[in-house]
């Protein structure tokens, strides 16, 4: 395995890999090489430009191979937020331009803000109608709960592949499979096709992500979640045929074959491609290692800390690296992490973008936890290089904080 989370002798234990991952050493090497060798403008016709362009195309092919996609269907973006914005706004605007009816969108009530806030803003502006499928008390989304919301004016369904806080994997393949049949029926009835988008930020590099198996039209790729640079990409099925028109979120030149303006960040793109290669070659090892460390963490915490509860314990289909725990009554997760474990254990209350708020996570509340339980919940997420020693040290720190005494 490559990459290392091994702390220094006095350094903290890092268990926040759902928030971000370090660059794999091989990715760093590739980025460094590209900074030196691929500095030409990819749009230039001279040798340096062609070299940079070739590096980008190699990365596009690597990402496509990881997803079982076609290289021409990959568009590079600045990150997952931009990819999600492009996906949603493109689907909405393409429908709006076809007829006078207001587009209807379907999502879930546990989406990341880069999905939820875009849709809420479009709703506020009066551009769409919106329905949210609700997860059950185990944080699971059910197929029929999604399909029951479909209307004649539905233009988009956008659902995350796995939730970043609970780790629960959503039934994307089931929705995709049924939606194919539904779209065939809609075509015969003269209704517009429903576009299916999936935010795969939390699953790439942890479990298999195959766009053909998932039957998605659009899929978001986020590099910093799988040991790549903070850059992203969007998969668009049949992109070059115009089946799913891409709308620019900003204006500029004709880069990325006219689908995403702005001079390409070649070194970061090559890093993303290298990270995709590593996932393609080592996914089974990564998955097994993370699951082993997560299970070890689960067992040791249950044995060491009386009163601790594992959230979503009854859900089988979860990310192999994610553990949501509810600490014993009388403590808050904020105190445990920010005071008791400070400089010893690095983890999250939930999504990293909400780490500075004292409010209970809306995702956890929607997933069946009470406000009191949500305020005592900590998300621990292991990485592909997390060791048994790190797990033992993390458990020791949490035990001492939860049971009292100096750490």
UniProtKB/TrEMBL annotation:
Its cofactor is pyridoxal 5'-phosphate. Pfam families: Aminotran_5. It is an enzyme of class 4 (lyase). InterPro entries: Aminotrans_V_dom, Cysteine_dSase, PyrdxlP-dep_Trfase, PyrdxlP-dep_Trfase_major, PyrdxlP-dep_Trfase_small. Homodimer. Catalyzes the decomposition of L-selenocysteine to L-alanine and elemental selenium. It comes from the Eukaryota. Keywords: Cytoplasm, Lyase, Pyridoxal phosphate, Transferase. Its EC number is 4.4.1.16. It comes from Orchesella dallaii. It is found in: Cytoplasm, Cytosol. SUPFAM superfamilies: PLP-dependent transferases (SSF53383). This is Selenocysteine lyase. Belongs to the class-V pyridoxal-phosphate-dependent aminotransferase family. Residues 13-392 form the Aminotransferase class V domain. Signal peptide: none annotated.
């Amino acid at each position: 395995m490559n990459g290392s989370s091994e702390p220094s002798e006095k350094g903290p234990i890092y268990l926040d890999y759902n928030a971000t991952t370090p660059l794999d050493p091989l990715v760093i090497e590739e980025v460094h090489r590209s900074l030196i060798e691929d500095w030409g403008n990819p749009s230039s016709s001279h040798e340096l430009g062609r070299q940079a362009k070739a590096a980008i195309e190699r990365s596009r092919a690597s990402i496509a191979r990881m997803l079982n996609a076609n290289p021409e269907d990959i568009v590079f973006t600045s990150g997952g937020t931009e990819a999600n914005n492009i996906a949603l706004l493109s689907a909405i605007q393409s429908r709006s331009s076809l007829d006078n009816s207001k587009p209807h969108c379907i999502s879930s009530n546990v989406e990341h803000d880069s999905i939820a806030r875009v849709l809420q803003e479009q709703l506020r502006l009066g551009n769409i109608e919106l329905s949210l499928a609700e997860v059950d008390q185990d944080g699971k989304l059910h197929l029929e709960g999604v399909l029951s919301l479909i209307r004649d004016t539905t233009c988009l369904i956008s659902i995350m592949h796995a939730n970043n806080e609970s780790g629960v994997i959503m039934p994307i393949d089931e929705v995709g499979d049924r939606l194919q049949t539904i779209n065939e029926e809609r075509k015969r009835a003269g209704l517009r096709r429903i576009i299916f988008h999936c935010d795969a930020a939390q699953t790439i590099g942890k479990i298999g992500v195959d766009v053909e198996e998932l039957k998605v039209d659009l899929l978001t790729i986020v590099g910093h979640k799988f040991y790549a640079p903070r850059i992203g990409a969007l998969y668009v099925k049949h992109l070059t045929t115009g089946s799913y028109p891409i709308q620019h979120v900003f204006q500029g030149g004709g880069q990325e074959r006219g689908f995403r303006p702005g001079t390409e960040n070649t070194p970061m793109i090559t890093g993303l491609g290298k990270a995709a290669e590593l996932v393609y070659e080592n996914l089974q090892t990564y998955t097994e290692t993370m699951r082993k460390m997560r299970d070890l963490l689960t067992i040791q915490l249950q044995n060491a800390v009386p009163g601790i509860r594992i959230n979503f314990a009854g859900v089988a289909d979860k990310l192999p690296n994610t553990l949501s725990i509810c600490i014993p009554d009388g403590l808050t997760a904020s105190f445990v992490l920010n005071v008791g474990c400070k400089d010893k254990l690095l983890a999250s209350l939930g999504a990293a973008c909400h780490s500075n708020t004292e409010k209970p996570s809306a995702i956890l509340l929607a997933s069946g936890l009470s406000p009191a339980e949500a305020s005592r919940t900590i998300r621990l997420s292991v990485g592909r290089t997390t060791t048994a020693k790190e797990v033992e040290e993390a458990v020791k720190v949490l035990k001492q904080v939860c049971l009292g005494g100096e750490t």
